[in-house]
Amino acid sequence: MKIGLVFDTTFDSDAGVQQYFKGLAKYLLVHGHDIRFLVPKSSREGEFKGKIIQFGSSINPVGNVTSVPISFFVGGRKRIKEVLRKERFDIIHIGAPFSPFLGAKIVELCNCPVVSTYLVHTKNSIYKLGAKILGVFLLKAYRKIDAHLAISEVSKAEACVVIPGDYNVIPIGVDTAKYSSKAKPIKKFSDGKSNILFLGRLEERKGCEYLIRAFNKVRSKVRNSRLIIAGDGPLRKQLEALVKKLKLEGVVFEGYIDEKLKHRYYASADLCVFPAIHGESFGVVLIEAMASGKVTLAFANEGYKFVLRNISQLIVPNRNTGELAKRIEEFLLDKKLRRKYEAKCLREAKKYGWEAVGLEILKIYEDLLVRA
What we know:
Blueprint: E1 2-6, H1 16-30, E2 34-40, E3 52-55, E4 58-59, E5 70-71, H2 77-87, E6 91-96, H3 103-109, E7 114-118, H4 125-137, H5 139-142, E8 147-150, H6 153-162, E9 167-169, H7 176-180, E10 194-199, H8 208-218, E11 225-230, H9 236-245, E12 251-255, H10 262-268, E13 271-274, H11 284-291, E14 296-299, H12 302-307, E15 315-316, H13 321-333, H14 335-349, H15 354-371
């Protein structure tokens, strides 16, 4: 098959939408299919050189919960028609909700089955209102979708309001082999201390402040512990100031971490903690950490609860720093308990490998082509 993978945000980012489609592309290529990315103007191609078709430009509008630029001007319908005529796709697979500038035009103009994956969940009222209003103008495109997918139950619930349809829940796939392989820990963190890892963007909804406050409590009982904060964002200076105010030792800010180094950070951790308070439709970082064989604690936002639904002991009440500190202490001080849950995390992560998830998506494609 030849599949067009469409999303309205820049290819250059490694945010959730990009991770989803890049991972799917790798799976499809390995299994003998051909792909093209149809995306706004981007500068990086990497391993997908020659398989990226770019349209127009992108902007970062107010209320954009992902902080990743989205398509704005794509140069009109003529070029899209030319690309579709030349490429002759068997399937178009698009990330939803999509914009009227690129995604909607491609869906309206293509002559093949369309699959959409709804990848969003947010409590941002501006975003939700915008999506509903936009939906009125995109009814023509939405009606051309032949198969509706959502990455979690909470994502499905939101999707049904924005783009009504009969949804299948198929989670985001993760290259679990990359993380389950015996990655080499980072040398400076291999000094015998107990390492707690946070990996994510330093913004309000990711909840890093709650972890810092919890770690302040942990240090009184587990002196030989360290909190590694891997990521960057608008709250970095504020979080660094909080650490200074608390006179808290053992906190290391690593800044932005390249995707190529993530597995080494996981390998360096004794425990991974993701205290996002809202706005998570899934939880790729949780799967990565679990695939690395690490106990993975998370706040009880809807997306993370879905991922950890079979290991509910790892879900911590939202914003509860006292309970978070207690759980961290338990797993750092009780090695036997930690090993037990590391095994559970590894087993759960296998369900999200691309070999399992990709096969489900391929079946959707094949069923559509049979009916076409």
